[in-house]
Amino acid sequence: MTVSVESLSELVVERVGFGIFVVDRDMNVLMWNRFMQDHSGLSAQQVVGQSLYAHFPELPRVWLARKIESVFQLGTFAFSSWEQRPYLFRFDHDRPITGGVDFMQQDCTFMPLMRDREVVAVCVTISDVTHVSIVQREREEAVAKLQEYADRDGLTGIANRRFFEARLRDEFTRWQRYGGDMSMLLFDLDYFKKINDQFGHGVGDTVLRVMTQRVAEVVRAQDTFGRFGGEEFALLLPCTPLADAMRVADKIRCVIADTPVEVLGTSVPVTASVGGAAAREGVPTYDVLINEADAALYSAKRQGRNRSVAFRR
């Protein structure tokens, strides 16, 4: 049996695993393959000869018209990735609902159909890349979570020292360039070793977590709260003069000390000492700011603990 090339071409177009349709310059449909029929629920007989928008009014008209017109004018291919526009048609997909996408994710190719060196129509192909998009999103989410874990302290969930110092460095650079105010606080829990020795490290860990939660509730969203290590913590206060920072320090001391931490029926009293420092002319690097806040913290401890001290030259 002899099969014509035209018949084979038509069979291939009908059976390929991606959508193919053709439109003229007025957006009238000239061809509509089986993929498009199966996913739209509209046969070629229903669509061909009519405006594409008659059956799909939800299509992005301005964007699509610009794409199609560019192919007619330039006679070159145009493309659209799902990363730029997730889909052209709101087709259902066969991936699990846990994939997090509502409609089939699509890559689109716009191909000029030429006759006598003139574009007479544009062929559009629709590729189902839902699986690819889901895998890529999952990979990106996994990388983001790994990055978040790398930036967070494992016990308390707040910023670790590495992330805190990176934020401090960036903020210090911004302050050097634009001026203004910037302060930081260092504080630690008084006699924390005694808590661990008397009640055990499990209770000590709970105290650290509870203290962290209390402090996190009184700091601003734009501040960076981090754990420096052990029972020592830091707070970065952008756009904040030292006087205001020390008021925050007193608030932190109060929220820590006002209520003992209840752990397994045991009431554990906790206080904190705080040292504060501010960026100012003559401070060359952010490391100096840390050292000054640290000096103020130890001054608070020497003065009897459970107090806030600002660094003064």
Description:
With 313 residues, the protein is α+β, with helices and mostly antiparallel strands. The chain has two domains: 5-136, Beta-Lactamase, CATH 3.30.450.20; 152-310, 2-Layer Sandwich (Alpha-Beta Plaits), CATH 3.30.70.270. Helices cover 44% and strands 22% of the residues. The protein has eleven helices and twelve strands. It has helices spanning 5-15, 34-40, 44-47, 52-55, 61-74, 130-151, 161-178, 192-199, 201-216, 242-257, 286-302, and strands at 19-23, 29-32, 78-80, 106-115, 118-128, 182-189, 224-229, 232-238, 261-263, 266-268, 272-278, 308-310. The strands form three sheets. The protein has a five-stranded antiparallel beta sheet with strand order 2-1-5-4-3. The protein has a five-stranded mixed beta sheet with strand order 7-8-6-11-12, with helices on both faces. The protein has a two-stranded antiparallel sheet with strand order 9-10. It is elongated. The termini are far apart. The model has no long low-confidence stretch (mean pLDDT 90). InterPro entries: Diguanylate_Cyclase, GGDEF_dom, Nucleotide_cyclase, PAS, PAS-like_dom_sf, PAS_fold, Rev_trsase/Diguanyl_cyclase. Residues 5-56 form the PAS domain.
